[in-house]
């Protein structure tokens, strides 16, 4: 089966009596334009979409089930700045390393990086290593110097 567009998302789809068959996709693979996956029930799907895949995206609606994307948890550092000044210092140093970051609530979320971890420890910044399903992929912003 070839999928050229995301049909809907589980967040806004009435399943009625349909079961959900998940296709597990890594955080890195969610941004690929062309991807081949197999759902938990063995449905093989070729995905050719422009947009980044999101957790719960419906790839196919079958007679008794829907095949949906399940984004797998990925290793991250969750940084919890104490105040605006600390956030600015952290963001400046992360930006200098061109490290992709996501900002959610009061957290800065980045990929694990031993040099940044060492910097955070030296600055007495609260952070933790964890696994997390990200709402969007961590990726570099396009820019030039």
From TrEMBL:
Main location (coarse class): cytoplasm
Residues of the signal peptide: none
GO cellular component: cytoplasm
Compartments, record wording: Cytoplasm
Keyword terms, alphabetized: Chaperone, Cytoplasm, Nickel
GO terms for biological process, alphabetical: protein folding; protein-containing complex assembly; urea metabolic process
Provenance organism: Campylobacter ureolyticus ACS-301-V-Sch3b
Keyword Chaperone listed: yes
Gene3D superfamilies, A to Z: Urease metallochaperone UreE, N-terminal domain (2.60.260.20), UreE, C-terminal domain (3.30.70.790)
Name assigned to this protein: Urease accessory protein UreE
InterPro entries listed in its UniProt record: UreE (IPR012406), UreE_C_dom (IPR007864), UreE_N (IPR004029), UreE_N_sf (IPR036118)
